[in-house]
Write the structure tokens for this entry.
Amino acid sequence: MTKKQHYSLYDIFAVLFVTTLLVSNIVSVKIVSVGWLTFDAGTVLFPLAYIVGDIITEVYGYRRMRRLIYNGVAALTLMTLTFWVVQLLPADSSWTGQAAFESTLGVVWRLAIGSVTALFVGEIMNAYVMGRMKVASRGRGLWWRMIGSSLAGNALDTVIFSTIAFVGTMPMDSFWQLIVTVFLIKMAVEIMVSPLTMHLIARVKKREKMDTFEQPAKYLVN
């Protein structure tokens, strides 16, 4: 078995994971209202990051997923710093888009810090619980492991981001409504696509000839 065979699909999932993180954080500045639902626009795409995270953790193991989370945090931090520097650069007098740029891509440090912190804690928890449950169950009950890990990861991610980013900027009833709505949407999306996720996991395991069992407690953050 060659190293190339082991990683033949990993790079695709890695690119998809990081891209999902970046795009969902860019569009999250927009608050969407659909009927009685209120949520940030990043909620539409962000569940994909947890779905891909489940696939990577289940097939390639906790340590590879953890390294990818570090890369995702680094990419998000670089993107944020780049937007901030560009925001500060003086605009040419002929360009009239400065206000629009600042309102969409301009860095609001509460949002930036909330995004990075929530991403790290939520994704690490998702991968940790997924890996821990796999070892404990000896690989059985994939659906329960996916949903259980997503419950833990999504709950932390949603509460941390919303608390850092929005506390004090809206009424508390709206704040709690936002948290509950975003969390429920994320979980609903993951549950709805869980049959597809399980199918993909089975196909990837067969293609890669991998099914990694790791005890995350030994590799939590190191």
